[in-house]
Structures are given as C-alpha cells and as structure tokens.
Design goal:
Blueprint: H1 3-30, H2 47-53, H3 56-88, H4 92-102, H5 104-107, H6 110-122, H7 130-154, H8 158-166, H9 171-199, H10 203-208, H11 216-226, H12 231-262
Length: 263
C-alpha cells in the first residue's frame, strides 16, 4: 500500500467519523437518566423511551406518519412504476421532456414546492388533513420510484414481452408474469425510498399539517422549539433506526437487481 492510499484511507475515516459522531451522541443521550440534555450522560436508562411510549401526543404523531407514509408508498409505487414503463415507450424527445417534468420535485427547492402545494390545496380544503399530506408527499416520492424502476428497466430485454404476447398472453398478463418479476427489486427499492421520503419529510408538513394532522417530524420540530427534553433524543434514535433499516434493505435489493441484470 502506497503512502497516498494510506492518506486517502485516513481522510475517508476522518470524514466518516465527523458524520457519524453526532448520531452517536444523540443515541447516547437517548439513554440518559438526566432530566435535561447533557453530555456525557450521568447514567443510563430507558426513562425517555418510556416517556415516548407513554405520551399520546408522540404516539399519535408517529401513527399518523406511518399511515401517511403507507398510503404514499402504495400511490407512488403504482404511479411511478406505470409512469416509468410508459416513458420507455415514448419517442426520445417526448421521453426527455416527460422525465424532466416528473423529476422536477427533485430539482426544485422543497420550500418552493411547499408554498405552491399550500396555495393549491388551500382552495380545496386539503390543508390540515391527512389526505393533503398523502397527495403532497406522493408528488415528492414518485421521482424516486421513477428513478429506481428506470434503472431496472435499463437492462430489460423487450423481446421477452414480445415473446409472451406472441404466445397469446394479454398485455396485463405479460406485465404481471414477465415484466414485473424482472423489475420487482427496483420497484421495491423505489417503494422503500418513497417510505423514507414521506416519513422524514418536514418542510411540506409544516405548511400542510395545520393543527389536526401533525406528523412525527412536525412534532419533533415543535419539541425542539418549545419544550426541549431528552425525549427528543429517544424519538430521534428510533427515527434513525427506521430510516437506516430501509436504506440498508434498499442497498441489498439494488445489489441483487444488478446481479440479475448482469446475469
């Protein structure tokens, strides 16, 4: 190993340490026995996890986030998968323009999206409702599904569909028995990213949740502003776990999809 390679490994290790250190601190604080945020903790315990599990406000916000994220996963996965398949059948220019429109929520600053969605939804009474959050988060999640499914379709052999159709299969039967099984890892990865996008989203929730549809990120934001205590560290730790686990699963699925495509 050369000196340059050693230096590169040291630099990468330092960067990872700087990135991971705040997460480690939050996790340790979540097990603190102190009545306020202090580091290092004087002792360790599960007091703040019990506080979280015994708080109706925290649990209501958590369940709402799960419900909204679940609905977003279903809608965005269906819409994103169908949109991606449709994009592959468009002429190059039309495909480029349509892809740009679908992926625009990824390019545009989220605060601009939130303001636009707020004014559009206010006309129809969707502000402060779970339905409004589901629709807005679906718009943010669909691009991730399109990107993931599009990567799976990049190595897809269209002749398999043509063979199935020539043997008498219906278009829907061809999609269900041929296309979907081959692109399913990409679909599932897109669904996982859609869940993470919705569950962790804050900016749009600040505009749309109102007083009747407070999600977990919105509740955490309010706690940081008005009533800071170690419960926020416990909630943050649980949120980290719920975010990292789908990401790891998505990484494994992506590697499996790559192996299937290369095979």
């Amino acid at each position: 190993m050369t000196g340059g390679q050693r230096l590169m490994r040291v630099v990468v290790a330092l960067i990872l340490l700087v990135m991971i250190a705040p997460i480690v601190v939050v996790v340790l604080l979540s097990f603190s026995s102190a009545s306020y945020l202090t580091f290092p903790p004087p002792a360790f315990g599960l007091r703040w996890y019990r506080e979280y599990l015994g708080s109706r406000d925290w649990l209501d916000a958590t369940w709402l986030s799960f419900e909204v994220a679940g609905a977003v996963v279903v809608l965005s996965t269906i819409l994103g998968t169908l949109a991606t398949i449709g994009l592959t059948r468009l002429p190059p220019l039309a495909r480029m323009l349509a892809t740009g429109v679908i992926l625009s929520p990824l390019i545009m600053p989220v605060i601009i999206v939130a303001i636009g969605v707020y004014y559009a939804f206010a006309k129809y009474g969707l502000v402060g409702t779970p339905a409004g959050l589901v629709l807005a988060h679906t718009c943010l999640a669909v691009p991730f599904v399109v990107t993931s499914v599009g990567a799976s379709l990049a190595g897809f052999d269209r002749r398999l569909e043509q063979a199935a159709l020539s043997l008498g299969a219906t278009p829907f039967g061809t999609f269900r028995q041929v296309t979907l099984p081959l692109i399913f890892p990409g679909v599932l990865v897109g669904a996982l990213f859609a869940f993470i996008t919705s569950f962790d989203e804050l900016v749009v929730a600040l505009f749309l949740s109102g007083a009747n549809a407070v999600t977990l990120p919105r509740r955490m934001w309010e706690d940081l502003r008005y009533a800071l205590d170690p419960t926020i560290a416990a909630v943050s730790t649980l949120t980290i776990v719920l975010t990292v686990a789908p990401l790891l699963w998505a990484h494994l699925l992506r590697r499996r999809a790559d192996r299937l495509r290369l095979g």
